[in-house]
Write a structure and sequence with these properties.
alpha+beta; two-stranded antiparallel sheet; 2 helices; 22% helix; Papain-like_cys_pep_sf; thiol protease; Calpain_cysteine_protease; hydrolase
Length: 96
């Protein structure tokens, strides 16, 4: 069983969000300049959830963070940086 990162339990967070009918907002990585820069303040940044345009409407796609690997390497789309996964998560959302 995985260890919770900074006390954040996926199952507890999911249950809480479902019961309240809200989307998860991560207090460990708030949608603000302090999550992007060490000391810079940029009030022009707009935080958006990943969305796709499908059949004339915007679709919000939710994916988990499990990615397919073989011999310890991502099977499909991957970054040159071995600890960077955004491209694989975007591909997973698109494939879904």
């Amino acid at each position: 069983m995985p260890v919770d990162y900074r006390g954040q339990s996926y199952s507890r967070i999911k249950k809480d969000c479902v019961s309240k009918g809200v989307l998860f907002e991560d207090p460990e990585f708030p949608a603000s300049s302090k999550s992007l820069y060490f000391s810079k303040v940029d009030n022009d940044v707009v935080w958006m959830r990943p969305r796709f345009w499908r059949f004339g409407e915007t679709v919000e796609v939710v994916v988990d963070d499990r990615l397919p690997t073989k011999n310890g390497k991502l099977i499909f789309l991957h970054s040159k940086q071995k600890n960077e996964f955004w491209s694989a998560l975007l591909e997973k959302a698109y494939a879904k």
